[in-house]
Write a structure and sequence with these properties.
Oligomer: single chain
Strand content: 25-35%
Largest sheet: 7 strands, mixed
Order of helices and strands: EEEHEEEEHHEHEHEHEHEHEHEHE
CATH class of the largest domain: Alpha Beta
Number of strands: 15
CATH superfamily of the largest domain: Medium-chain alcohol dehydrogenases, catalytic domain
Radius of gyration: 20 Å
Helix content: 25-40%
Number of helices: 10
Structural class: alpha/beta
Length: 334
């Protein structure tokens, strides 16, 4: 079994390749054949463009959110068997190897693989919302309405936040947020944006999920967050190009800033404000199965991995790229 994959072979260059070496599981491994893998635009485009606070080295293998089927197991594997559908951190590749303690089975056959492929990405939104410790009736803002933000809007609502507000420059994304449960949406470019948010939340937002990763957006969030409010930094702010007065904006007002990179989550034993990766996989699947979390409205495109070069070039050049893009690995299967 040989593996096809997408790689960034140089800055702003993506290619589809097939490895020469065969992929075979060791005793404690499973061989998974990917069905779909979802693009995480923020992380992948940052590495594609070689931005600061990325590895900056090539080749770089993008992707980390996929679903597929077990097609072979090692002799020591006990909990899975060939044919099982699974979620994993699989990357943009046709096949990959995992241990069974890194996987969660997709029990509900009605779950669409194109939606399940967003499972790993969704867990970041789960962590970003959980770390805010939302209380029933508190106001919440989601700044940035890409995949992570649109999922965070739904999770904030499920957590009891009211009102749930979304912010994005794109009118299409703002419309999606309203469809998915936001009570109000605004453009950060509006002249009176901060005042509108304060007015909608009786003086300031209790809890903010900052998803843009743009320092100017964080600066703006510090203007509309409530006294003693909390901000979870879900987006990766890779370029610190805006000054922030931490004394006046954070210290004096008692604002809490929480880093919510996935590496901060517990490896074992979930706690109320941060679940393990596998527990969040299960929560994602349960919410999908129960029709309480919706992915389909922002699933924009299903594309062939063979077209990766064009897809990433288009994403990098677009000011308003499609929200949810999935690679369909059946299109390149021999």
């Amino acid at each position: 079994m040989r593996c096809s994959r997408i790689l960034f072979d140089a800055r702003k260059s993506a290619v589809f390749v097939t490895d020469d070496s065969p992929v075979e599981p060791e005793a404690d491994q499973l061989l998974i054949e990917n069905e779909y893998s979802a693009i995480s635009a923020g992380t992948e485009l940052a590495n594609y463009c070689g931005l600061p606070n990325t590895s900056g080295t090539f080749p770089y293998f993008p992707g980390y959110s996929s679903c597929g089927r077990v097609i072979r197991t090692g002799s020591a594997v006990k909990m899975f068997r060939p044919g099982d559908r699974v979620l994993s951190w699989g990357g943009h590749c046709s096949h990959h190897l995992k241990r069974e303690d890194e996987l969660v089975r997709i029990e509900d056959d009605s779950i669409d693989g194109r939606e399940a492929a967003f499972g790993r990405i969704a867990t970041f939104s789960f962590l970003g919302v959980r770390r805010l410790n939302l209380r029933l009736g508190e106001s919440a803002m989601v700044a940035g309405l890409g995949v992570l933000g649109l999922i965070a809007v739904q999770l904030a609502r499920l957590s009891g936040a009211c009102p749930v507000i979304g912010a994005d420059y794109s009118p299409e994304r703002r419309a999606l947020a309203l469809e998915l449960g936001a009570d109000q949406v605004f453009s950060p470019g509006e002249e009176d944006f901060v005042e509108k948010v304060r007015s909608a939340t009786h003086g300031g937002v209790n809890a903010v999920v900052e998803v843009t990763g743009v320092a100017a957006a964080l600066q703006q969030a510090l203007e509309y967050v409530a006294r003693l409010g909390r901000i979870s930094l879900l987006g990766c702010t890779r370029i610190p190009d805006v000054p922030i007065d931490f004394y006046r904006s954070v210290h004096l007002r008692g604002v809490t800033l929480v880093g919510t990179h996935t590496q901060t989550r517990p490896r074992v034993d979930s706690r109320p404000d941060a679940w393990t990766e596998l527990d969040d996989y299960r929560a994602f699947l349960n919410l999908l199965s129960g029709k309480r979390l919706r992915i389909a409205p922002f699933l924009s495109e299903v594309v062939s991995p063979a077209d990766a070069g064009e897809v990433y070039a288009r994403l990098a050049a677009s000011k308003n790229p499609p929200v949810g893009i999935v690679f369909d690995w059946s299109t390149v299967r021999n």
